[in-house]
From TrEMBL:
Signal peptide start and end residues: none
GO molecular function: beta-glucosidase activity
InterPro entries referenced in this protein's UniProt entry, alphabetically: GH, Glyco_hydro_1
Entry protein name: 6-phospho-beta-glucosidase
PANTHER family: 6-PHOSPHO-BETA-GLUCOSIDASE ASCB-RELATED, GLYCOSYL HYDROLASE
Family to which this protein belongs: Belongs to the glycosyl hydrolase 1 family.
Length: 459
């Protein structure tokens, strides 16, 4: 059996703009909903993040030193278009143009993500974010402009980070929804508008530049039934259909799942679906690959789910832990086999190349100012997950494009700020003290460097 990793396999790092850039009110940037978070969320100062707006070069050098050949970053919509639907800000566009050139100069392939939870504030306040078709259209215009500006240099694109979260209760926090009754109709309409946007942008990229590729992206938690009870099995199958299949059906076949649309009909949900017009948009927006984030697995216990709850929503209530498996300090179950199963299942079912673009473990870490951080647990985590991916490739036959770790240079976590670090490089700041923001390689930095040097062939 050939066990050589594919040539041109991508290894790299993955981030979002609000978790890296800082410079929240500089360079002509408009406000996003995230920029006002500091005023209400006192756990940390979000306005600096790891200060990449002022200095990203040292981080690119570290990625290069780790032998990475891809970096997934996000273009902040409000940096390049301050109001979201008005004039473009050339200074913001120039920032990303420079970043792309500086990546390419180091032999690092850029991957662009267009949206990662940070709605321009004006669009949230005026229109309720993605609940509005006007906002969907404004987002599509922004996406098309970025394609015109950058696709000659950027060949890998994704539209929404963790697109299936726009079909869960988190929808209301991440889509710019400011007011409303959080009804199922609102939730489904927001989801539908984001799906249309994904498809319109994908179709445009395919027309504009046939050498560029665009992927769907979902947050994948491997879910097992909490018991052998048929009800648990049914609940797992249903959430799989609503939260994963339904999106991958659009990415692959250009239509929603029949089971989901039956639920819409039976429950008289008004998802603002314009038949004819929207059918054509969905059909034209197929993806070139399926990407996903993976951190953990969990159990689903049907008895915890309130009666009548929609399957796209009930993960919030029904999830529980398998206490027999190891877990991170945040009780995220560590399960590399789940990772392999997802890769193989997605490839078997949809036949598109698969790309895990977020993986990692959050740990409490504090640098003493002198000694290297010994993050053996992180090394173990990545080693096990890369091995599981190799099993999916070599034993199960999956076609995998690459492997990107999440936040491999420390960034604030979305749930636990600087207390929860994913990096192979320590960034010297705390929630409230910016300190010197110095970059300090941890033990895993040297590990990544060694294994990426051999294209992951030795682990
Ligand atoms: C993903 C998000 O869900 O998980 C990131 O895309 C986030 O924004 C990452 O940081 C890890 O989650 P957390 O909560 O540990 O930061």
């Amino acid at each position: 059996m050939n066990k050589e990793m594919p040539k041109n396999f991508f290894w790299g790092n993955s981030t979002s703009s609000m978790q890296t850039e800082g410079g929240w009110n500089e360079g002509g940037k408009g406000l996003s909903v995230y920029d006002i978070r500091s005023a209400t969320d006192h756990t940390m100062d979000w306005h600096v993040a790891i200060d990449n707006f002022h200095d990203y070069e040292k981080d690119l050098d570290l990625m290069k030193e780790m032998n990475m050949n891809m970096y997934r970053f996000q273009i902040s919509w409000s940096r390049v278009c301050p109001t979201g639907d008005g004039a473009f800000n050339e200074e913001g566009i120039e920032f990303y143009s420079r970043l792309i050139d500086d990546l390419l100069a180091r032999g690092i392939e850029p991957m662009i993500c267009l949206y990662h939870f940070d709605m321009p504030l004006a669009l949230a306040e005026k229109y309720n974010g993605f609940l509005s078709r006007h906002v969907k259209d404004a987002f599509v215009s922004f996406g098309k402009e970025m394609i015109r500006r950058f696709s000659s240099r950027v060949k890998y694109w994704i539209v929404f980070n963790e697109h299936n979260l726009y079909f869960t209760d988190e929808t209301f926090q991440i889509s710019g929804y400011e007011k409303g009754d959080r009804s199922l109709s609102d939730l489904y309409a927001i989801f539908h508008h984001t799906m249309l946007a994904h498809c319109e942008i994908s179709a445009y990229l395919h027309k504009f530049d046939q050498t560029a590729k665009i992927g769907g992206m979902v947050a994948y938690t491997e879910i097992y039934p909490a018991s052998t009870a048929p009800a648990d099995n049914l609940a797992v199958r249903k959430q799989e259909e609503f939260l994963y299949q339904n999106l991958c059906d659009v990415y692959t076949y250009g239509r929603y799942s029949n089971e989901v649309m039956t639920f819409v009909k039976n429950n008289k949900i008004d998802m603002d679906y314009l038949s004819g017009e929207d059918d054509a948009i969905l059909a034209a927006g197929k993806a070139d690959f399926i990407s996903f984030s993976y951190y953990r697995s969990a159990l689903l216990d049907a008895s915890l789910i309130p009666a009548g709850e929609a399957p796209n929503r009930y993960l919030n209530e029904g999830l529980c832990l398998d206490e027999t498996l190891p877990a991170s300090p945040w009780k995220w179950t560590i399960d590399a086999t789940g990772f392999r199963n997802i890769i193989t299942r997605l490839y078997n079912q949809f036949g598109l190349p698969i790309f895990p673009i977020e993986n990692g473990i959050g740990l409490y870490e504090e640098w003493d100012g002198q000694n290297e951080i010994q993050d053996d647990q992180r090394i173990q985590y990545h080693r096990a997950h890369i091995q599981a991916m190799k099993d999916a490739i070599f034993i199960d036959g999956a076609d995998v494009i690459g492997y990107l770790g999440w936040g491999l240079i420390d960034i604030p976590s979305s749930h636990a700020d600087m207390n929860k670090r994913y990096g192979a490089v320590y960034v010297n700041r705390t929630n409230h003290e910016l300190l010197d923001l110095k970059r300090v390689p941890k033990k895993s930095f040297h590990w990544f460097k060694r294994i990426l040097e051999t294209n992951g062939n030795t682990l």
